[in-house]
Amino acid sequence: MPRRREAPPGPTAVDRLxxxxxxxxxxxxxxxxEPVREEDLAAATGASRHTVRAVLARLADERLLxxxxxxxxxxxxxxxxxxxxxxxxRGALESAAVQLLGxxxxxxxxxxxLAPARAAVAALGALAGDDWPAVAAAxxxxxxxxxxxxxxxxxxxxxxxxxxxxxxxxxxxAPAYDVPRLVAEHAGYLEDVQAxxxxxxxxxxxxxxxxxxxxxxxxxxxxxxxxxxxxxARAGGGPGRARPPAAPRG
Length: 250
What we know:
One of its GO terms (molecular function) is DNA-binding transcription factor activity. This is DNA-binding transcriptional regulator, GntR family. It holds the Pfam family FCD. It comes from Klenkia brasiliensis. The chain has about 250 residues and is mainly α. The chain has two domains: about 80 residues, Winged helix-like DNA-binding domain superfamily/Winged helix DNA-binding domain (Arc Repressor Mutant, subunit A, Orthogonal Bundle); about 140 residues, Up-down Bundle (Four Helix Bundle (Hemerythrin (Met), subunit A)), CATH 1.20.120. The chain is about 60% helix and about 5% strand. α2 crosses α3, α6 packs antiparallel against α8 and α9 runs antiparallel to α10. The longest helix has 26 residues. The C terminus is likely disordered.
C-alpha cells in the first residue's frame, strides 16, 4: 500500500505576523525611526509575547528594524553613510556575478541567460508609476535576476539577504524616477554589463547612489520616542499611525 504523503507544514503564526509587519514597513506605513513596541503589537494582534519577540528578531535580522538597549525596537532609518555602505556591498556582489557571467559567456550572453532579467524589466514597465513600493520591488527583481543568472548559490544568497533592506531604503527616499526612465536605463544596463563587465555595474550603482542621496530631504536624526499608543487607537488607525497587522489565525 503506497505511503500517504503528508502535506507540507503551513506558515506559522510567526511567519504570518512577520509577513504582515514586513508589508507595513515596506509600504512606508511605519516611518523611519518609528517605534514598534512589543506590548502594543501583542495586544493589537492577539499574538503571544513570545511570537512577537520572534517576529521582531526576524525583521531585525533583515535590517528592517533596529533593536537598541534602552530605546527598544524601531524602524530602520538610514544615514548617508548607511546608504553608501549598502550600495558598496551590493555593487561588490553584483560585480562578482557579472564577472562570472563574462568569464562564462564572453561579451555576448545567450538569450536564455538574459531572459529572466529581461522579463523582470518588462514586468517593471507594466507597472503604474504612482505605486512606488511596487516599482521599487520590480526594480530590485531586475538586479536579483541578473545576479542569479551567474549560477553562484553563495553570491545569490548573499545578495538576496540585502533585498528587504534595499527595498526599505528605496521606499523611504522614493527617488525621482518615472517608470519609462527606469525601464530604459535597465534595458541599457543589461547590454552594458555584457560589453563592460564590472565597470558597468560600478557606473550604474554610482548613479543610483547619487540619485538616492539627492532624494533625501536631510540625514535622519535620532527620532524622539513616541508616547505609547493604545491597542484601541492602533486598531482604529488614528491620524498619522499605521493600522497594525491583522491577528494571525490558528
